[in-house]
Amino acid sequence: MLEYAYVTDKGLQRELNEDSIALDGIVITAKDDCGFAQKLENEFCVGVFDGVGGKDCGEIASAICAESFCKYCKPERLIVRKEIYDLVEKIQNDLLAEQHTRGANMMTTFVGASLFKHKLTLMNIGDSRAYLFRNNVIKQYSFDDTYLNYLKKNSVQILE
Questions:
Q1: Taking a C-beta distance cutoff of 8 angstroms, is the pair 68, 92 a contact?
Q2: C-beta separation of 131 from 143 below 8 A
């Protein structure tokens, strides 16, 4: 059994909360209240999408991607790397189609998890992070998929 809670917040620098959550087929957007549920069992998919501040319509981008995640995410398929890439590509294609329709440069970050037959799969794009909390210890399992981290990993000197 996995216990979970969620809360979204606009943070200190934004006027608008651009977060969306996809939880076992349900999309929760920033306009919804915080919530708590007792458990997820056996198999599930969960994704958190955070619209990129400074870009157009981040709250719409995160909601579109959360809806696509619910539509395409199947826990039994996300145990193979190619299936994870296929899922992300489908979500991206839905977002690109909406960008084209709206003429907006909207983006979102993403972190997700899927559980199937006791195998947990974690996914992330951008600086949304995945952590595991077990035995009162928190450990980060994802890395920030950002240009800055790319530069750091490739020994490019960064002047601050």
A1: no
A2: no
SS (H, E, C) the chain: CEEEEECCCCCCCCCCCCEEEEECCEEEECCCCCEEEEEECCCEEEEEEEECCCCCCHHHHHHHHHHHHHHHCCHHHCCCHHHHHHHHHHHHHHHHHHHHHHCCCCCEEEEEEEEECCEEEEEEEECCCCEEEECCEEEECCCCECHHHHHHHCCCCCCC
Confidence (pLDDT) at 115: 86
Nearest to residue 81, comparing CAs of 110, 43, 50, 119? 119
What residues contact residue 73 under an 8 Å CB cut-off, 6+ apart?
22, 45, 47, 87, 112, 114
Show the tokens assigned to 2: 């996995």
- Cα-Cα-Cα-Cα torsion 143, 144, 145, 149, nearest 10 degrees, comes to -100
43-64 tens-digit pLDDT: 888 899 998 877 788 889 999 9
Between the alpha carbon of residue 82 and those of residues 56, 114, 146, the distances in Å are 30, 15, 22
